[in-house]
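Task: sequence design from structure.
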């Protein structure tokens, strides 16, 4: 018998990715938009706090187990910025391009260009779950001077992977899912759920 898990996002790409990975455990993944769950203010100062806020909100509204992810880019030359503000680095409702432009402008000719993407996944069995399942992973790279590639989203066109000599935006979807911070965090979550026998 399959169990239903609410994903605290309206992003269809994230829903499909998670649904594919959890299908072996007979878990049916549905977006929170199917339940008219409203967006919740991400008031945390860490990825963990924000993911918990989103998962708890979705679990509370739907009465179902919920999973949320919070992710972003940490740039060493900017003391860890944009961090939890990655999606709104250039302001509320900023486009990916506006965020990239601000990042490159602030970094300027700074030689310290090492960076990493972080993803934190939180699974709450119910809104009052005292021990949510938390899985995190990072993906190391460097920030380029110019954009390259048309794939992916967010900061992918300026996130360079030295071992592959290309940016994240130049990877195929399959390559990115296998290597990325989100892909790694999902693998950890799948492992944990498999050990537990599911939800």
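Answer:
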């Amino acid at each position: 018998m399959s169990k239903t898990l609410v994903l605290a996002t309206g992003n269809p790409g994230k829903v499909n990715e998670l649904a594919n990975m959890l299908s072996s455990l007979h878990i049916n993944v549905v977006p929170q938009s199917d339940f008219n769950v409203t967006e919740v203010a991400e008031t945390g100062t860490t990825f963990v706090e924000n993911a918990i806020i989103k998962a708890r909100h979705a679990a509370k509204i739907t009465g179902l187990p919920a999973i949320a992810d919070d992710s972003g880019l940490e740039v060493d030359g900017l003391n860890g910025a944009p961090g939890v503000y990655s999606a709104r680095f250039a302001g509320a409702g900023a486009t990916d391009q506006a965020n990239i432009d601000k990042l490159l402008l602030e970094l300027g000719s700074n030689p310290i260009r090492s960076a990493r993407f972080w993803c934190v996944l939180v699974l709450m069995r119910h809104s009052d779950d005292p021990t949510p399942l938390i899985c995190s992973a990072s993906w190391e790279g460097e920030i380029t001077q110019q954009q390259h590639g048309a794939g992916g989203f967010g900061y992918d066109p300026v996130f360079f992977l030295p071992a592959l000599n290309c940016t994240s935006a130049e990877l195929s979807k399959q390559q990115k899912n296998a290597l990325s911070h989100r892909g790694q965090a999902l693998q950890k979550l799948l492992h944990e759920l498999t050990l537990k026998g599911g939800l």
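The helical segments are 12-22, 47-62, 96-107, 173-179, 181-196.
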